[in-house]
Sequence to fold (87 residues):
Amino acid sequence: MKVEKAGTTNFQAVNQKYIKKAIKEYNYLGSCTGELMECLRTDVFFRAISARDGLDTIEAIRPYAPRGISALNHIKENFEALLKRGY
Fold:
């Protein structure tokens, strides 16, 4: 199933760069790649985007990562831990 654009989300701060890349990778590969998830994690750890925005973005790209659910869950746990520490 090819996706042309992102559906509407209930998330307040979805980083559009990542959702567009997830859709593109999903269309070509059937799932977004670990590289996309690592880039998102790096941006959060180096504070290019907030941990809250990272969590919202994770939830938005979840439908485009059927083969990467365990990785998404692991990254999500990391972002939640950062939020608890006030990162």
Remarks:
- The CA atoms of residues 55 and 76 lie 6 Å apart.
- The mean pLDDT is 87.
- Residues 69-84 form the longest helix (16 residues).
